Amino acid sequence: MKNKNTAGHLAALLTIIIWGTTFISTKILLADFQPVEILFYRFIIGLLALLVVYPHRLRGTTRGQELTFAAAGLCGICLYYLLENIALTYTLASNVGVIISVAPFFTALLSHIVMKEEKLRANFFAGFAVAMAGIFLIGFNGSRLELNPAGDLLALLAAFVWACYSVLTKKISGYGYHTILTTRRVFCYGILFMLPALLLSDFKLEPGRLAQPVYLFNMLYLGLGASALCFVTWNFAVKVLGAVKTSVYIYMVPVITVVTSAFVLHEQITVLAGAGTVLTLAGLFLSEGKR
């Protein structure tokens, strides 16, 4: 059991490390791709990769289970990323980064209400307060706090939607199916729900753009790494650790972003960003503690 818990923590950590670096690939691709196009291509690549890795069918599902898969696809694959991208057009990236980090708090509340076995502990709320203080320092380091109601509310809604996805993933893990099969089914529903957004946007089916090595590499990184691999490892972590314990790893995303920016983009880590990183990690360990 201890080894399984360790595997769950390592899976969550690997997922967050990759997700924390995706901003670089997304930033590069945005030069020639729309946000919804990047979203569509990355999950198509992810779906195909999971089909190649585990070419088996998911059989024997009930109507209720299929509805849960569909809800997870709508929340975690379609709505979360669309809301986040739309929020970025209305408000500052720092606002979105901080607000999205509220997701573990929503996850804890929903898990307590829906999944009765997930108990709310004082250390979780203490860790949440410490981590949010650190994330706030990282997000608004050297910049002014600017409230943009429309964008900020969309970011808050995105955080709530991700919490819904986490709870749904925990429920799906109880069905006993292989994690790759359930992740693939969720991808299918997510892509299906994404189609109306593609039709409403100026979507261009021009795969020739991926002939450029820099675009191809970054799209594959998002599709194979951030989608196919990470959603499987995240769902595995939720299955082993629970929705609440896994969700607190979201606190690390701004930390990974700061470190990656320093190494890849050669951005300087300021005193505030350093202090914020220490607080965020302290909040993570406090939330994960048993007392």
From TrEMBL:
Domain of life of the native organism: Bacteria
Q: How does it sit in the membrane?
A: Multi-pass membrane protein
UniProt keyword annotations, A-Z:
Membrane, Transmembrane, Transmembrane helix
Residue intervals passing through the bilayer: 7-26, 38-55, 67-83, 89-110, 122-141, 147-165, 186-203, 215-236, 248-265, 271-287
Residues forming the EamA domain are: 7-139, 151-286
Q: Where in the cell is it found?
A: Membrane
State where it is primarily located: membrane
Recorded GO cellular component terms are: membrane
Q: What is stated as this protein's family in its record?
A: Belongs to the EamA transporter family.
Q: Mind telling me what this protein is named?
A: Membrane protein
Query: What is the species of this protein?
Result: Marvinbryantia formatexigens DSM 14469
Its taxonomic path starts at: Bacteria, Bacillati, Bacillota, Clostridia, Lachnospirales
